[in-house]
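Q: My labmate handed me this sequence with no annotations at all. I'd like to see what the chain might look like in three dimensions before we decide whether it's worth expressing. Could you predict it?
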Amino acid sequence: MRITQPVPCVARLDQEDGARLLSQFAVLGEGRSLIVDSGLPETPRQVLAPFLEEHGRANTPLALVITHMDADHCGGTANLKRLVGPTTIIAHAKESPPLGDPGATLRHRYSQFAASDGLHLDVAAERRIRARLGDPFRVDMRVSANCEVSLGSTTCVVVHLPGHTAGHLGVWIPDESALIAGDAFMGAGIRTLEGRVLFPPQFVRPSLYLSTIRFAQELDPAVLLCAHEETMMQSSASAFLDSCLVMAEAIVEAVEESVSAGAKSLLNVCHEVKLINREWGNLPDSDFAISVAGCLCEMTEEGRVTVGLRNGVRTFERSAK
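A: Here is what I predict for the chain of 321 residues:
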């Protein structure tokens, strides 16, 4: 574990998740603390509980903001509640349900294209993800709008940052101009510790993702804190957000070009989108499914794409209108 302090009131708690960086964030207030994300099932025992105990917060009120339903951000929640004092779990209403129900989360987030597009997890992958989701838990506070959490002299604003998921949350600390953003911004993808792209940018709707990037650009944070990126100060944060915008727009354009050439399955379009960036060459086509499906969904709603069926799998092509 590595602990740093990017701004006076925020501790960054880093651990390794296989080949990549995984970070949680702690804001220590006056008699109350706030944690952003619970990590994996082992994270509370290895990282969060020792940190809180070391700082005299083991049995003081705690707010836990879960940014979104991915396993590496919520899998430690049940264990955190077992190890520390009173904990209020905060998530967006669009995440819960299924957030808190590991089986439902696996089906909703990780197996969402099985029935419609034939993209099934193999048994080993399903078991691994289910283990990483940890035990069930109950969300105490479902938010649907930005809200303040007071920690005495420090005020945190829980903000909606949709795109990577529909209910993705972040935490804005106005006095420090610091934005804790989870996976809200993904650049050209999540990278390994050695700098290799591990996952491409993933967003459920391009319009949501693009609007969230622009929102962050307007905030112009002095410090940007993402779960899988090193701390970014203002100039590097600005450049990173610019790169997020460029890459998202490139994906949208590539999807549009792909379906112009005739009816294709989701996996066919994913493969062609993958080719726009040389860093993505070795990634599985299915890793692009969330973003590509989001683009196709919006294009279908706008009447620009028609959906068909071939051998039990959806096909997409440019509308004749």
